[in-house]
Amino acid sequence: MPSPLTTTFIQSTILNAIANLLAQIIDHHRKSKSTFTINTPALLQFLIYGILIVPINFIWQRYLEEKFPGALLFRRSPAPAPPPPPPTISTNTKKKRNEGDVYISIPAITGTSTTLKEKPFQPKARGWGRGRGGWTNFLMKFLLDQTIGSVMNIVLFVVLINLLKGVDVAGVVGLVQLDFKPIMIARLKYRPLVSMLMYTVVPVDRRVVFGSACGVVWGVYLSLYAVV
Length: 228
What we know:
It is built from 7 helices and 2 strands. The chain is mainly alpha-helical.
């Protein structure tokens, strides 16, 4: 079985390729009526960017889940298995027993019985929206993804895609300052809904792929930026 990261790599790469090809088709029909041909360098640049960014986002989502675990709409955990039959209770003990206590009789070397007390079984209460999976953790993950996560992804995109296109460091810095605001505004038009779904119903190891699937349109937007 491939690891979750390997699966994420493969699925995200396929989705990024689809997004880039769609972007190239859109860009071609906007600018020209000639026969469409794939811009292989642009496709490779976008795929390399995706390969570099997937592990960063994979680690980021796991970090958020470790710090603020739980999801509001995950299924309830299955009911705990019934406790095993009670062990043999010694008839030799004269100690008063409290209701709910369990006494286990262990034969000693001399043939007499030694009685040990075991704590009664008390299953932990489980539920939706409580404790570790409550609204506080959801809101923390949501806000961090919209702020730190968004800034990180936008800056890395502009830096990586332009370095892959051969832009020097000074030019990359200027492009980050120029392009950050419009890309951030575009991201805020779709990312909040994606984040709400990710942190309520999607397991942590599938969040990067889920984001890529929901963001094919976003990938087209980024690819159109990269093609220019």
